[in-house]
Amino acid sequence: MTAFGKAASATSRVQAEERPGPRTPSRSWDQNARARHNRDSAIDWNTVGMPVTRVAVVGVSHWHAPLYLAALERAGAVVVAVTDRNALLAAAVADRLGAVSGDDIEALLERVQPDLAIILGAHADMADAALVVARLGVPLVLEKPGALSMSELSRAHVQLAGHAVAVPLVHRLAPFAREIGAAGPLTHLTISYLVGPPERYPAAGCDWMLDPASGGGVLANLGAHFADLVLHLGGQAVDVVARVSHARHGLAIEDHAVMVILTESGLTATIDLGYLYPDAPDKRHVSIVATGSAGAVSIGPEGVARRTHTDGSVTRRQLEVDSDPLFGAFVERAVRSWRQGFPGLPGMHELVEAMAVVDAAYRAAGGTGEQAWAM
């Protein structure tokens, strides 16, 4: 059996063996949606404008938090509550935003009654926080990887069934994803995505990221995006091989990983990820090569996409390869669509499928599959 087959089988066993009995949440998402619909229907929004979305940010010690907060402001949403394992940070951010903070997520959210929750923070805290929010019937955005391990994520997936969850697997929405797809059904894809050194995380107040007990390695951090992109372009994964390294920084987590994914459509995708780029203004190195039935596409770090057509002609386009704006666009869509359950945005199903590939890569690189996503 392939490495991916082992991972998929393990996931299936977890879902079968640990599927809980029926839950009785204090309020379901459907009940909340109906209540909000009734509330909103009683108002003439053509006169007063759309209602303001009240947001709780759970786990603000995350390097994406500034992107989310800026996007929420642009979308006209109001942050009403902030929590974090670092209580002083949560209080400081809440004070700046005119929100409230507290240690007890459930009590705090019961008090402020948010419309939407955004779950960031340490990987070790994500799944439990999502389940607390779901019990309150609040739609949620869950950052990847959503948990510390595959078994934890699988359990959360089962317990969140039927709840409105959006996951920012934003690279499938990127301009370069559309450009890659234009090469036709793909048979070859190589992506190198190298970001700055791991010291960036403590500098951003995210010390937890470099601890396997709370965060994870570069494969867990960046791998979800590219595993999802490969599945989006090439269909189900049938095999995964991988290697990881600590050679550059010598930390308790891997700083470099390469995984090769074979999909059911015949696509072979090589994904090279690392904390190997200098801490520089351009933040990352991106290079992509894709070939398929409609030709070839290559995209360099400056964002120039060169498409070679089957007749030999060449066209060029300038693309944005910085991923930061993608998070803002995702959050703005989530604010607009939470009432309808986030139509068109990736959710738990896509996250679990992507992380099953990442989990298979860790196993193929020598992990047991039982530990957290770090080596």
Question: What does this protein look like?
Answer:
The longest helix has 17 residues. The protein is built from 13 helices and 14 strands. Helix content is 38%, strand content 22%. It has 375 residues and is α/β, with parallel strands linked by helices. Helix 1 crosses helix 13, helix 4 packs across helix 12 and helix 11 crosses helix 13. The strands form 2 sheets. It has an 8-stranded mixed sheet. It has a 6-stranded parallel sheet with strand order 3-2-1-4-5-6, sandwiched between helices. The N terminus is likely disordered. Strand 4, helix 7 and strand 5 form a beta-alpha-beta unit. The chain is globular, with a radius of gyration of 21 Å.
Secondary structure elements and pairings:
Elements: H1 3-17, H2 29-41, H3 45-48, E1 54-58, H4 65-74, E2 78-83, H5 87-97, E3 100-101, H6 105-112, E4 116-119, H7 123-135, E5 140-142, H8 150-159, E6 165-166, H9 175-181, E7 186-195, H10 200-203, H11 218-234, E8 237-245, E9 256-263, E10 268-274, E11 284-292, E12 295-299, E13 304-309, E14 314-318, H12 324-337, H13 348-364
Parallel strand pairs: 1-2, 1-4, 2-3, 4-5, 5-6, 7-10
Antiparallel strand pairs: 7-11, 8-9, 9-10, 11-12, 12-13, 13-14
